[in-house]
Amino acid sequence: MRRIFFSALLLAAALFTSPLQAQVVQPGPDDPSVEQWTVPWESSRPRDPYVAPDGQVWFVGQRGNYVAVLDPNTSDMKRYEVEDDAFPHTVVVDREGTVWYAGNRGHHIGRLDPATGAVTRIDMPHPDASDPHTIAFDQNGDMWFTLQGANMIGHMSPETREVQLISLPQVEGPRGATGNRPYGIKIDSNGQPWIAMLNSAYIGTVDPATMEFKRYGLPEGSRSRRLVIDSSDRIWYGDWAQGQLGLFDPATGEVKEFADPNGPNSGPYGMAIDEWDRIWYVNTRVSPNRFVGFDPATERYIANLPIEAGAIRHMYYDARTRSIWFGTDSNTIGKATVKPPRRGAN
After folding, report:
1. Among 132-141, 152-161, 174-183, where is mean pLDDT lowest?
2. Which residues pair with 336 in a beta bridge?
3. Which residues contact 19 (CB under 8 A, 6 or more apart)?
4. How far apart, in whole angstroms, are the C-alpha atoms of residue 87 and residue 108?
5. pLDDT tens digits along 31-54
6. Which of 81, 82, 80 is nearest to 106 (CA)?
7. DSSP for 224-281?
8. What is the reported pLDDT for 28?
9. 242 within 8 A of 285, measured Cβ to Cβ
10. What's the N-to-C CA distance of the chain in angstroms?
């Protein structure tokens, strides 16, 4: 069944706080330890690793058109073939261990059975629903995902496999109306999705009960690409365009930004948050890339580690091992192990 919701746009005002001055961060004991595994399929853009319930690390090869799994204990990797037109963008694993990926070029969501390698394809219900991008599961096991090129948000029940599409409003630009480019997506503690929008100065959300879309303004010129949500349901985002780490509090409407230690052209991209609510992200417009850590408790940057990666586009935090997993354009899968905070020493 096809269901498309054309959103009744709600705009919410936000209170902006000026960015704080950039902080100089020296190498120190808070730097994570980094380990990387070379992927044997050359120039395949391995990305978006996700740790399954059994500790295996799944990832996709966007250019190589595959889904793969890494055993961190043995370093063995196994490749699974997918639909010819998939070129998968993101992979997630549900509570039962089933693997799901975004068929980026093929306009579908893919389901992979790890036991057999069998792939099931769930096509988008509308021809305009292109570019399935980033996926997140809510607390009920339902899937939410962005469709960047289509300017849509998708919702799917894995049981019924019914796809619902929410079409977002256009944004006015110097060349006319364009899409928001909905990009990163995360779920808060109430099961509500929050969406970074790369082509507009907004953060968006969808009410799961009504499928109504609402957006909140960010400072002029902001372009959020990835976001994370802390234990108080505050939204942290990387301002790709202006080199800021941003904080939006839905409870108050306040927006606060912190100048990136690597400057306004640093390009914050892949993001993760640990169990202490510390924010970790990677600057990809500087060479080498920088693996940056920020502690909201002190409002101080705690790490600024150089890392040879080419680009790190998405990250996943595994609390069991205190490890942040990432893929790189240098054809590796990486793990950054973080240390508990030393807040008493600040």
Report:
1. 174-183
2. 34, 324
3. 244, 257, 258, 259
4. 10
5. 999 999 999 999 999 999 999 999
6. 82
7. EEEEEE-TT--EEEEETTTTEEEEE-TTT-EEEEEE-TT-TTS-EEEEEE-TT--EEE
8. 77
9. no
10. 56
Domain at 3-21+46-286: CATH code: 2.130.10.10
H/E element, 273 = strand 268-273
Grouping H, G, I as helix, E, B as strand and the rest as coil, residue 298 is coil
What residue segments make up the domains of the chain, in order of their start?
3-21+46-286
Mean pLDDT computed over every residue of the chain:
92
Phi then psi for residue 344, to 5 deg, are: -70, -20
Q: Identify the sign of the CA torsion 90, 226, 75, 339.
A: negative
Q: State the residue for tokens 């968006």.
A: 204
Spatial contact of 34 and 334, defined as CB atoms under 8 Å apart: yes
Instruction: Name residue 61's amino acid.
Output: G
Taking a C-beta distance cutoff of 8 angstroms, is the pair 305, 32 a contact?
A: yes
Three-class DSSP category at 133: strand
Describe the strand order of the beta sheet including 10-12 as a list of residue ranges.
10-12, 212-217, 202-207, 193-197, 182-187
Note every long-range contact of 296-299, with CB atoms under 8 Å and residues 24 or more positions apart, other chains counting. Answer: 296/230, 296/236, 296/247, 297/341, 297/343, 298/343, 298/346, 299/20, 299/258
Per the structure block, which two tokens stand in for 66? 């595959």
Using CA atoms, how far apart are residues 162 and 142, in angstroms rounded to an integer?
Answer: 11
CA–CA distance, 59 with 239 (Å, rounded to integer): 25
Q: Residue 137: helix, strand or coil by DSSP?
A: strand
How many Cα atoms sit within 13 Å of 41 on the Cβ side? 21
Label residue 5 by pLDDT band (50, 70, 90): very low
Calculate what percentage of the chain has a pLDDT beyond 90: 88
Largest CA distance in the chain: 57
Residues 307-327 pLDDT 10s: 999 999 999 999 999 999 999
Nearest Cα neighbor of 240 from 330, 331, 313 is 313
Task: Give the whole-angstrom CA distance, residue 341 versus residue 118.
Answer: 43
Residue 7 — very low, low, confident or very high, per pLDDT cuts 50/70/90?
A: very low
- Which residues, 6 or more positions from 148, have their beta carbon under 8 angstroms from its beta carbon? 131, 133, 179, 181, 182, 183, 198
DSSP state of 126: S
Q: How far apart are CA 106 and CA 29, in angstroms?
A: 45
